[in-house]
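Go through this chain.

——
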Amino acid sequence: MKDLLLTYYGDDFTGSTDVMEALVLGGVPAVLFLDAPDETFLRQHFPDVRAIGVAGVSRSMSPAQMEAALPPIFSALKQLGAPLFHYKICSTCDSSPTVGNIGAAAEIGWRIFQPQAVPMMVGAPPLKRYLVFGNLFATVNEITYRLDRHPTMSQHPITPMDEGDLRLHLGRQTTRRIGLIDVLGLAQSDEVIAARYHKLLEEGHEIILLDTLDQTHVEKIGALIWSQRGERPIFTVSSSGLEYALTAHWQRSGLVHPPPPLPPAGAVEQLLIVSGSAAPGTATQIDWAEEQGFALLRLESVKLVDPAVADHERARTVTEALRLLGEGRNVLLYSAHGPDDPAIPATKARLEALGLGATSVGQRLGTQQGLILKELLERTGLRRVCVTGGDTCGHAAHQLGIYALEIVMPIAPGAPLCRARSLNPSFDGLQISLKAGQVGKPDYFGSLLRGVV
């Protein structure tokens, strides 16, 4: 499609909606799919779209699973003919050699797109994520931490961050040579920055990290990466900071224009929330919901991941949730209350005892959470829901038969309210927030309920 500016694959659902939000608010009509669409379908149903994404779950995959899942999607997106393909990673770069291996995904992209090198922008200042001299930082409650000291990411249950220097962190996942243009280099003119980029190429660097501290860097990086267009598509491994960078450059150059503000979605009478996040930010939001009279219902994760009792526990949970919803209450189902919740090690221990492996917790628990959400929606007809946590979001979307998402309105940076396109008429048009655990203010659920920021 000649009007496409970019295609992307998101390594989890929450990050995928984050990219779509950055594009739409930057003036680029975008649609997020669960599987790669073909050009005929796009022209028939989304003729004005200029960016296409596919929401994936590769952040929870092994390298072998990536090798099976990613090549056909990458190839299908390449066929759409956009000048840039973005493998979207989280701005916290959570990954390891065995789970969510960024280097393994980059190798697949290398094989399909055959780039000269891969520019890599991880920082995203609008989301308070920064890369400085190759070290990654994130802000929580107005305090900025290096990622290996971050209260959430240093304790992530699957991919804890124990190294803030991304050259070292990524060096465990790839043998490709990694270069860096740091904040001092980015203080130079666009021409000098481009010359530095090509000098790194000549020296044999294959992945080029780009420091990102402020909006000036964002705009310069957008210009640099877009200038690399050629006969082959640009292949980049980056966070959603890339979309902020590109849209800033495209607006400045007149390629796109700032869109009018999206109107508020308005209030709904009831809100259903399914939380699979252990982030401290989510724990604070759960506390806020309880203070405001939301009915809290714990998802017994130890039982839900056990095949022998999962069906019974799911049925019990649905029955109790329906009772609470029938009373007219807003209902929040959660599997963890912060990173220190004892349910987290207990669930891992149960999986190990069953011989299923602790790393399967996201897939097994996420599937059960998705099935619970599906049954509750079928039986209540609710039309606005929130799902938190990357694995939970991915499995919930699949259970609801969602094939595409479009932005309804922004709620918090990286966590918009979306409209679902589903092959199941019961869920087509459903308003859904697929939110990363650490995103949003304490009253995020209240903003979602009211449909205003």
